Structures are given as C-alpha cells and as structure tokens.
C-alpha cells in the first residue's frame, strides 16, 4: 500500500492577470508553467513520486489544466471543487458576496478519493529547490 496521497492544490485564481483564462498554476515562469516546478519537486522525492496524485482545481480551470497535464508523463486524478459556499440565506434581495472556501472545505471534495492513511498537501506555487524529506519524515 502507498504511504501518502499527494494532494496538489492548483485551482487558485490568477490575480496577477485577472482577465486571463489561465489559472495561477499555469502562469509561465522561465518558459514553464508554475505547476511544472511543483511537479518536479514531487517527482524528486522517493516517497511521493510513486504516490497517488490528486490535483484540485476549480471548474473554471479544469479543462485548460487537464489539457496541459495530459502532455506530461504523470499519472494524476483531477478533482473539481466549488469555489464558494453555497448560499443558505432565504432572501433574494440580500446582496452578499459569497465566501470563498478554505483549504479544509476544498479537501472535502477529494476525501473519498484518498486511499492512504496520510496525505501530503502541496500548493502549486511551491517553487525553487525544496527538500520535502524533513517534512515527510516528521509525519512518519
């Protein structure tokens, strides 16, 4: 049995270029999308490279993210989540901005797909030379 399920949170809105159809995870950094660097970090760790990979994204970015990921030599499952809490107020005349979901709310959307005792939750904007070994070993 695999030790971890890697949950990669890659659905953040692009606030750098707000009118873009690209999620933040696909913004180019040195001719590669930001998510590419995070995937390299995951693939370089022995305990995570062969772990199931769940990639969380919003419905708005699912297709463009899946198109990019399908060009890579990785096995993943793309999980779509809601971005906002569903309204529970009774009146139509209330103009309230919807609350964005927090990390735990988003994790609920993939809970049934986690088949391991432990998860490694990583955001897609993890960038640079990152050694995950101390973090992974801390939870062993």
UniProtKB/TrEMBL annotation:
Belongs to the eIF-2B gamma/epsilon subunits family. GO terms for molecular function: guanyl-nucleotide exchange factor activity; translation initiation factor activity. Gene3D superfamilies: Spore Coat Polysaccharide Biosynthesis Protein SpsA, Chain A. Component of the translation initiation factor 2B (eIF2B) complex which is a heterodecamer of two sets of five different subunits: alpha, beta, gamma, delta and epsilon. Subunits alpha, beta and delta comprise a regulatory subcomplex and subunits epsilon and gamma comprise a catalytic subcomplex. Within the complex, the hexameric regulatory complex resides at the center, with the two heterodimeric catalytic subcomplexes bound on opposite sides. Its main location: cytoplasm. This is Translation initiation factor eIF2B subunit gamma. GO terms for cellular component: cytosol; eukaryotic translation initiation factor 2B complex. GO terms for biological process: cytoplasmic translational initiation. Keywords: Cytoplasm, Initiation factor, Protein biosynthesis. InterPro entries: eIF2B_gamma, Nucleotide-diphossugar_trans. It is found in: Cytoplasm, Cytosol. The keyword DNA-binding does not apply. It comes from Adineta ricciae (Rotifer).
